[in-house]
Amino acid sequence: MLEVHNLYREYKPKKGRNVIALNHISLKFPEKGMVIILGKSGSGKSTLLNVLGGLDKADDGEIIIKGKSSKDFSQSDFDSYRNTYLGFIFQEYNILEEFTVGANIGLALQLQGKKSNDEAIAKILKEVDLEGYGNRKPNELSGGQKQRVAIARALVKDPEIIMADEPTGALDSHTGIQVFDTLKKLAENKLVVVVTHDREFAELYGNRVIEFKDGNVISDIEKYLAPSKVVNPNINVVDDKIIQIKQGYKLSTDDISMINKYLENNNAIVSIDQDSNDNLKKIARIDDNGNKESFKTTDESTINISDNKNFKLIKSHLPFRNSFKIGASSLKSKPIRLIVTILLSVVAFTLFGLADTVSAYNKYTTTTNSFSDNNLSAISFVKNKKSEMDWYGDETCKQTDEDIAYLNKQTGLDFKPVLEVKDSNFTNFFYETPNSSSSDSNKILQADEFSGYFEMTQSDIDNLGYSLVGKLPTNDNEIAISDYLYQHFKQNGYKTNSIIHYKATELDTTQKFLAKNIKLSLDNQEYLVVGIIDTKFDYDHYKSLNDSNSNSLITSVLGMELFTYLSTEHHTNAFVNDGFIDSKLIELKNRKGIYFDDSRLSLDPYDYSDEQSFMRMQDGGYTSNLTITKMVKPSDISDFNTSAFFINNEKTSLGNNEILISVKDYTDWAINYYYYCEQTEHSFTQPQWMNDYQMAYNEVEQLNIIKSSLNAGTFFVDGIPDTLYYNKYSSATEIKIVGVTNSNDLQENGNIVASGDFYNTFDKTTGYYQSLIAALPNNKGTISKLVKFGYDNEETTTNGMYYKMSTSAMLSIEIVNSFSSVSKKVFLYIGIGFALFSALLMMNFISTSIAYKRREIGILRAVGARSADVFGIFANESLIIALINFVFATISTGIITAVINNTLRTQSGIMITMFNMGLRQIGLILGISVVIALVASFIPVFKIARQKPVDAMNKR
After folding, report:
1. pLDDT at 434
2. Phi-psi region for residue 627, left (φ > 0), alpha (ψ -120 to 50) or beta?
């Protein structure tokens, strides 16, 4: 079934001469029988065996297996050839130390896709006289027992060919005989090819002996039986030297004479012991019929090679269990290196996970987690209008009942409005703020006025998790306030217009404060305080604002965050009864003029339609602007004809885009401009009335001075700019200041009288609600949907309008959002760097492990395992490391992200969950760990898998 044609193999060492191991060898092998390859070391006999078994590759020539040429074989085909037809027995046994005896034997079956069961293992062990040794490890066996395990492994898959390389070289003579006896018995039904240097064993056991020298066949002989001389049917003379007598025969007179004649010339031992007789026959190589074994030149013409019709290869498949076991055993080889590799890999993967939380920054996730982790109780939405000038900002718009209905429908929450009614005629604070130099660590953070009205119900209190002392308002003249505001009163007392109504000691308990009347700056009305609601203001979160040693950047962010916190939740609201807002809206709708609460609605010297923002002023450098509080038409002023003073005395009415500003605003402008010119050496002569105004004793004298100057026509000052621009967020409109007014209806700063055209450019029916507030749900899934709506509607505006989420955490979130696009790229590259570092660590460890396991790889290949099986072993080893890395890296990443987020909240006070570890990071750490493991395995395994198995076994 096996033959070789013109095999040539030459070794080319790095040093020394080339060695020809096979010099164009051609041989045919029979279907069965023991063929001995005999020769001294270096003769080429082992090379022939290795080439025959596909463990080595000839430089030229071919092997014919059942009529199939090896020229058509791939490396995988050679592996399958060994798996299908060959059983190898090696001098060094080459059994796997990490497997039991039974597992070593069963491996050969499993590679063929057969089931390895205890019964089959026990049967084959019995055949090699190792019954009961199945569960022993190789280190518990003697050399002879190990060799029998190797024989059992070769036999268990019932191969057609058994190849043995110096199978007795490491054994004592007695054990060697046992091994050869076993192989001789196998040769009765199989082709057994044995390499040995022992001529005695070769001639004793071989059916054919092929002797090699210097890569050439110098002798090829085969055994035959030479017939003995038959004296009579019961006596044979073998080779004229040995007389064989059959059992039970009685010698005749002639027989005795023949024996006596033999004894005349020779000594003789006549054995009457059957064992001794059998040994004698064995040594003399005589069979029971008296035929003697002899050798003659081999006639290969009598050897038939079967065709390739029956040639079928079985591709090996190493079971996962065995693959995993071998891979896991490799981890024990270098424990210190393994620990260091895992530690460094865990660090690298942890850093990768942290970097990815930044590179994969998602504002939706960050916002959702920030809302949830900071236990925010409420969320508000404000309505904005997109500005065409992104660098300036968007316009805040008042909201209506339709906005409430829309938000409720879209979010599923119960939004309620906060009504802010600023009365420009009353701007005094209702109390004084705490002394900033106070050493009291619990001093109250600054808040100087109520932010708006909110109709609080008991249901709202329950939903928000608040608590109430006293009762909720039931009449329009009653209010409840937050405990946060009460603490201000308790610490500072209550005063208006510098008039002290109650000292702090008169308000030091809630019972003392209840039933007190206070005047609100919202509408200059007095209200009876009937309840105090604990809105759970987080004093500890903002305590660093009271610490002069706190980081200025952090305190700046916290300060802005506090402003949002107070305005978007209920800490500074005045809580009123149901129906209060509707009645207050009636008053608002009956008011004349337009009220502006956004300080950015201003007149200033910049043309905002020009991106260069050049100043339209004759002097330049004067940048004061006029913030609009209230705008009216001339028809809304009862004394317009007598209160209007024009720069041009001949003018009596306002034209298009012309305005009057209040006397007080003009006075402030003139004084500020005078100081600016004085400091910058600009030319400006202070008029007499301004000097008198500054020297006046009180406001009455100041008013009289201004009236006198107006009547005298000396009030207007040359050089004060009169051309300004009104920024309406999408364009800049040129406005001309043509005079002033001292109407009793317009005494406060920011009041202007506008021409009809300018006045009508404003939408006066946009709404009255500054913000809408709802209880923030506890369920993270609901919060996530809410956040998605908040961001998505901002990106898909309708007529430039959108609703913007507003909570105390949003400021920090928006700051981080603004930097995320840059940081994501940076941290992406950082993450990739850590992943590559981990890959190098893994590859280094696997390469070392492969070098350590190279011999085992060669053994597996010799048994019949393919490169894919070898890859599976080290892939399993790498995957074990990868899973260890994954588990520890995931845990450590989760812990570190939690610690960082907690530190940001508790130490810096910033309300943001910046590092959000989720399924993405877990999946990436797992995925990259696995990919790196496979790549780290594939590259070195690919290299060693391309090696010839014999080189791997010999660690070449």
Report:
1. 44
2. beta
Query: pLDDT confidence of 25, banded at 50, 70, 90?
Result: very high
Single-letter code of the amino acid located at 866: R
Return the sign of the alpha-carbon dihedral for residues 13, 15, 18, 22: negative
Cα separation, 841 vs 844, in Å, equals 5
Q: At what angle do helices 552-568 and 810-852 cross, to 10 degrees?
A: 120
Full-model pTM: 0.61
Specify the DSSP class assigned to residue 820.
Answer: H
The amino acid sitting at 688 is Q
What DSSP designation does 419 have? E
pLDDT greater at residue 544 or residue 62: 62
* pLDDT beyond 80 at 410: yes
What phi and psi, each to the nearest 5 degrees, are found at residue 924? -70, -45
Q: How far is CA 730 from CA 393, 613, 635, 727, 733, in A?
A: 10, 14, 29, 7, 10
At residue 423, the pLDDT reads 55
Distance of CA 888 to the CA centre of its chain: 13
Q: How far apart are CA 520 and CA 522, in angstroms?
A: 5
The CA-atom distances, in angstroms, between 618 and each of 221, 246, 611, 621, 627 are 123, 146, 20, 9, 21
H runs (alpha helix) in 616-771: 640-643, 663-680, 688-695, 699-712, 756-760
**What span, in angstroms and rounded, lies between the C-alpha atoms of 414 and 398?**
18
Structure tokens at 82: 């060994």
User: H helices of 331-457, where?
Assistant: 335-359, 363-373, 401-411
Q: Find the mean pLDDT for residues 928-942.
A: 79
